[in-house]
Design goal:
Length: about 300
């Protein structure tokens, strides 16, 4: 089975193996497991049209539409799949312009509505980031939240992002946080260089989710798998309880919080018990990752 992975964006010289973006880290995991060809630069796209499976990446508004569309049209015999990590991810322009029918592999239960989508598969794509524990690093800081501005998390941003928490985000997001009354300690975007992950320096990571997700199940986010790999305790707002119960992880009850004061209290008690819990979560995540990759293999090979 010959597999191609397509996520070409504008610009040149992009090396996905050195990229810190979560989308590329997931695609590199798929490339390595399926011995696939991964195309992220326009110059990478081959003239060949002999692929059995083409996986379209998570999508970007900066995608290279024309060359990618031509590649999809040339590979007429290939089955086409689109990876969708979040419910708000709504487009992969080359796929739609190609006119190809496709199957979706998605992280959430509710359906995607597109007349060209012929089948939908619900798998925990985020487990692709599951890994063994990184090397031991002395914790220097308390709790961090990282990521972009998300309007559907406004109430939780306002609840938690005070001067006691760190916020790692791109500079373009800072104005929105400040405008909405958030006053955290700002730091630059985290580094995800293997064994040099900035997250490892923090004792805890705040886990919140969109209000929409409370009643529309989405698998645990990448930040859960990133945290436990870095031996950083994920602390969950109580609103995430339904997601946690559905996820199947055990022993999360001690890491439910409702305020910055709760976060400080948990951080002050972190010790050997937390190491054991995160070790169990890592083992569970790695088992699920193996299952997800096996399920993907069966899906790709199905007629």
């Amino acid at each position: 089975m010959k597999v191609g992975i397509l996520d070409v964006r504008r610009g040149a010289g992009r090396d996905p193996s050195k990229s810190y973006t979560v989308a590329y880290r997931n695609l590199v995991a798929l490339r390595d497991h399926f011995c696939a060809d991964l195309f992220v630069n326009a110059a990478d796209i081959p003239e060949k049209s002999d692929y059995d499976v083409i996986i379209c990446g998570f999508g970007s508004t900066s995608c290279e539409k024309d060359l990618s569309t031509d590649f999809l049209k040339r590979n007429k015999k290939a089955r086409v799949f689109w990876l969708v990590g979040e419910y708000e991810q709504s487009t992969f322009a080359p796929l739609f312009y190609s006119g190809r029918s496709f199957e979706v592999i998605k992280n959430f239960e509710h359906p995607i509505r597109n007349k060209k989508c012929i089948k939908q598969h619900f798998l925990n794509i985020n487990t692709l980031l599951a890994s063994e524990q990184r090397g031991e690093v002395r914790k220097k800081y308390g709790c961090v939240y990282y990521g972009r501005w998300r309007p559907d998390r406004l109430r939780y941003f306002q609840q938690y992002l005070d001067s006691s928490l760190y916020l790692s985000t791109h500079s373009k997001n800072i104005k929105m946080f400040h405008h909405n009354g958030c006053n955290p300690k700002l730091i630059k975007p985290l580094s995800w260089a293997v064994e040099r992950e900035t997250l490892s320096l923090f004792s805890a990571s705040l886990y919140i989710e969109d209000v929409f997700t409370h009643s529309n199940y989405n698998c645990l986010g990448n930040r859960f798998y990133e945290a436990i790999a870095c031996n950083t305790v994920p602390l969950f707002d109580i609103s995430c309880k339904n997601t946690l119960e559905r996820s199947g992880i055990r022993g999360f009850e001690s890491y439910i919080v409702e305020s910055p004061a709760d976060i400080a209290e948990v951080i002050n008690t972190i010790g050997e018990d937390e190491r054991k819990v995160m070790s169990e979560w890592r083992c569970q995540a790695l088992e699920e990752k193996d299952q997800v990759l096996a399920d993907m293999g069966r899906i790709f090979n199905a007629e």
